[in-house]
Amino acid sequence: WVHGTEVAVERRRVEVMVPVLLPAGMGSPDHAFRVAHDEADRELGFMWVGALPGAPKDSCFLFDIYVHEEHRGRGVARAMLEWAFDALRADEVRTLSLSVRTDNEAALALYEKLGFVADATVEGARDLEMRKELGPDPDVARRHVFEPQKVVVEGLPTSGLILDIGG
Questions:
Q1: 8: helix, coil or strand?
Q2: pLDDT (tens digit per residue) in 7-61
Q3: DSSP-based helix, strand, coil % in the chain, nearest 5
Q4: Closest Cα to residue 98, out of 113, 117, 83?
Q5: pTM exceeds 0.85, yes or no
Q6: DSSP structure string for 103-142
Q7: Contact 66, 72 (CB under 8 A)
Q8: In what order do the strands lie in the sheet with 59-67?
């Protein structure tokens, strides 16, 4: 049993879902897989974020996040999600959605602390749909791209090197 569901049922769901979502395997476009390691290069957990077929281009879905049991409670999931928020904002993704088991209290608490909100819920549902509005990348507001300008400077020597002209 996996969270109240038979392993065979969950395995079949994954066998049907993965080829549709990942036609080129882990190299499929619009999907990112990350593995968290500690300073001794031990695997702490992993995460899969990607686009849902037919969803708006500025949205992504957290398909999976897992922290190995011996590393839970140490901020690994939070660190992976915060990395994802920054990476997604930089790619102009504005909404990250996920589905979480209603009995997974630790995950629900983390998602709520990180600003995820529950979408409309169905009474007695096994899973809860949540989303987080990421907003624009704060670094983008500090950047500006200037168009190249041609400037003619009269009276410069025609030989030698110019180290810098600033303006």
A1: helix
A2: 788 788 888 888 889 999 889 999 999 999 999 999 999 999 999 989 999 999 9
A3: 30, 25, 45
A4: 117
A5: no
A6: T-HHHHHHHHHTT-EE-S--TT-SEEEEEEE--S-TTGGG
A7: no
A8: 31-37, 43-50, 59-67, 95-101, 127-133, 117-118
